[in-house]
Structure formats: structure tokens, C-alpha cells
Design a protein that fits this description.
Blueprint lengths: L6 E8 L10 E10 L5 H4 L9 H16 L3 E11 L10 E10 L4 E10 L2 E12 L8
Antiparallel strand pairs: 1-2, 2-4, 3-6, 4-5, 5-6
Length: about 140
């Protein structure tokens, strides 16, 4: 889990006209703050810190879990575009724009972009599986 150590969610703003998270489709603007002192930046890269692509994808996953209130797992990622490097010293706060479409109770489609200071760093489309934990009685 990266939330709370690598990044923090500053706020979540629903930008469509819906009122809850159970509608089929919703749009959100999320402000996140990066922790520029996180140990990952000592190795990625010394003297020139860059947010790893895997961390960007994981950040989106954790944000989707936060929004939906459900544990989700990335199933598919498509159209992944890393457009510019994110230096946490130069861009300590980012905006994540997400369009979330629930296919059914088990699958969620997401389109996301990560921006900062009028610059787009990353965008992708994905499908997440909702992990429903069933109580099993033996």
C-alpha cells in the first residue's frame, strides 16, 4: 500500500451531477500530495527523483478503492501512456481525473489522467475486479 507513505489524498471531488458512488458512471477530480522523502526516490533515481510508472498505476488502484469503498484488483490495463516524468520536488501535488464506469458488481472500467501545472504526465484505461470477501462457514 502506497497511500499514507508514498502519497496522501488531499481531497476527492465528484465532478458529475450524481449523488452517490453506486451509479453506473461517475467522474472525479482527486488531489494527491507526493512524499518526496519516500525511500523509493533514493534509488529511482539518485539526484533526479522520478515517480515510477508502477507506482502511478498502484496510486490509481488505491484511489479507486478509496472512492468505491471496495478492495479492487487491476485486471487489465490498456492504452497506457507515460507522457512526462514526474519529479516529486517539482510537482509535489498532482491532480488525478478519473471516469469510473461500473460494468457490474464485479468489474469497474476506469479512464484516468494524472496532471500537474497544466501538464499531463500519465493516462490510461483499465478494468478492475472488485474483491468481494465471502464469509465461508465450514
Amino acid at each position: 500500500m502506497l497511500k499514507g507513505s508514498f502519497f496522501d489524498i488531499v481531497n476527492i471531488l465528484r465532478t458529475d451531477s450524481g449523488s452517490g458512488t453506486n451509479e453506473v458512471e461517475s467522474s472525479y477530480r482527486i488531489r494527491v500530495r507526493l512524499n518526496h522523502t519516500h525511500p523509493i526516490f533514493t534509488g529511482h533515481f539518485p539526484g533526479n527523483p522520478v515517480v515510477p510508472g508502477a507506482c502511478q498505476i498502484r496510486m490509481i488502484t488505491e484511489i479507486i478503492s478509496e472512492i468505491t469503498g471496495e478492495e479492487v484488483r487491476l485486471l487489465e490495463a490498456d492504452n497506457i501512456k507515460f507522457l512526462a516524468m514526474i519529479n516529486p520536488n517539482e510537482h509535489p501535488e498532482l491532480t488525478v481525473n478519473c471516469q469510473i464506469k461500473r460494468e457490474d458488481k464485479h468489474r469497474i472500467q476506469v479512464s484516468a489522467t494524472v496532471t500537474g501545472d497544466d501538464k499531463t504526465f500519465f493516462k490510461y484505461k483499465s478494468i478492475f475486479k472488485v474483491n468481494h470477501h465471502e464469509n465461508v462457514i465450514k
